[in-house]
Structure formats: structure tokens, C-alpha cells
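Encode chain A's predicted structure.
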Amino acid sequence: MHLLRIECIGFILTVYRICRVQSQGDGRIIGGRSVSILNYPYQVSVRYNRNHYCGGSIIGKHWILTAAHCFEDEEDLSKFAVRVGSSYRSSGGKIHQINSNDIFVHDDYLSNSTDNDAALIYVDDSLLSDDVPTRAVALPKPNEEFPPGVLAKASGWGRTIATEYEKPEQLRAVELPLVSRSECQDIYWNDTISKSMICAGYVEGGKDACQGDSGGPLVMNSIQIGIVSWGEGCADVGFVGVYTNVAKIREWIRKVTNL
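Encoded structure for chain A:
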């Protein structure tokens, strides 16, 4: 995965920065399969300048949850929009324009550590329309804990091969086991795995999110427990993905949205 902090060379906008691997926007489903929006009706494509940029999830009639790092480098926030209700990143569903004043980055987001990597988007029109298949995903209780080993699903339009820029047209998803914070900290010994983070993936590699999936949901038993945030590479042996822990930011979500 990668959030793509800036430890890389500057690339053009749509390439984000694939250096050390915290890749921003543009995230990753590797080792998964193509799926229908009918089974993931909460999935959103966050778009910049008419191109898929990040994932996101519908959490209420007017609210989308995504990653804060998706917005930290773009000065013209008026170029952001969202596509909902489509299995395809470039067609179908419905496009909603975003007012730049309606993007709310977590108050305690730290780009250097990717702590509290979360943002909320308010959309004027209802996201829950009968015209297209959309539904809000459930959220966990504040500070709710989830046991290691339980399977959760990550979804998005990110890369399917880490070394290739091309992203799939159709939505993809992959099942990943949760990894304990202590094991995740051992893996990322040079970083801090805070309580605002949750880890998932296979240490043996082969399955992961990737560039283009950033901001997308990690869902367990119909409850969104994570937001695709960062990681070392995509499905690399010896590493797992790091997600924003939704249970730890639940009170912030309630404060901003009243949900």
C-alpha cells in the first residue's frame, strides 16, 4: 500500500509519489477479484480533475469518509468530485461536485506520521438515491476493538500490479486478515503504529490494497473498521497494510456529521 508520504521524487499529479510507499491517492487492490457495486454500494470514487484519485465510502445521506492525505497536496479543491453507484471508475453511477468548503480533514491529522489519516466530504445532494445503487456503510462503536485474524474486505480501483500504473476499470475487492498492533509494530519497527491505526494483510504477501485504493473502506461484517492509508509497497513479502482505525476517530466523525 502506500500513502505516499513525501519521501520520494516529485511526480506529476496522477502518478502521486511511489517512493518509499506511502502512496497518496491512487490506491491498490492486489490479489483480489472484480466485484459489483451491488455488493459494495457504499464504495465511492473520489475524483480530481475528472480522474479517479482516491477511494471513499458513503456513511450517511450527505457524507463520505476518506483519507486526509488525498487532499494535502492539491491547492484547487474545487476540482474534486465523487462518483457513486457504479462498478466502473470512469462511467455510470452519478457524479457529485464538491464545494471546497465541504472537505473536513481530521483536526489531529499529521502528514509526517499519517496519524488520524481521515477526512469527511459533505455533498449537498442526497447520496442515497433510488436512481443508482448506493447505501451507507455502518460504523463501529467508539474505541471498539477487533481481534487479530478476523477477515475484512478492502475494495477500490487501485493498481492490481504494484509496478504498473494502469488501474482496473471495474471495482475490485480482497479479503485480508487483521494483524495485531504489536505484530504490525514489529513489522514497521522504524515507524509508529498508533492507536489511530489498524493493520491487515498477509506477511507472506500476494494480497493488499495499492495506489489508487487510498481512502477506501476496510469492512468487516458490514461495518467499516478501516480507511486505506499507507504501507510498504503493495502486497510485498514481510509487510502488511496500515489503515486508519475508524473506531478511534468515531467521536470526531460524530462531532462533524452528527452521525
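The mean pLDDT is 86.
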